[in-house]
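Re: the 233-residue chain
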Amino acid sequence: MSIQLITFDLDDTLWSVQPVIAQAEQRLQEWLAQQAPHLGVVDVPRLHSLRAAVLRQTPELVHRVSELRYQVLLSACLEAGDALPVAQETAEAAFQVFLSARQNVQLYADAKPVLGQLAQSFVLGALSNGNADVRRVGLADYFSFALSADALGVSKPDPSVFQAALARAQIPAQRAVHIGDNPHDDIFGAQRVGMRTIWFNPQQQPWQGERAPDAQVQSLSQLPQTLLALQQE
């Protein structure tokens, strides 16, 4: 059956996310040290401790990474004795510092050429559990839409994420393919709604899930040929 829609995961599919988050965390710590020194050391272990405390109180925020980070920063400010209005202002400013740095991704070299080629023949959508913005990372021209867990209130592998993409594109699951690096969040999640799947597996790890993806690639440059083969099945 012909393919009409291709949805992409973002983090660790179109770029490596670990150095991005590390850089954003470092930028956040530098800003807090300069602008809010009374908070003390707000390093990653402390942020993790605050995060756990916030999630104990509001576990639903696990699917909304932006709101969760803001609430963690707000907790740090309140813990330091800031009045609520001041704490909110500082937390929002700090969050925006982090979010801006979080968009400073280094795309895989073949990402833009491949997306440009695929966008000529397919509807492309982005599905992310993170808070990267396709506009701010320079990919808005390739995607017809982008859906995030922040906006949806649920995260992959929840079927409603993929169903939302299908509804947005008005294309049935049988004519859609999802591409991502995570066997559970991406592959299993998309399989649950009847989409075909391509596992992005640059490290050539052995498949350990229950149901194998329809195909796998080690580089994005392999996608056009892989999709052509799926079209012919």
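The mean pLDDT is 96.
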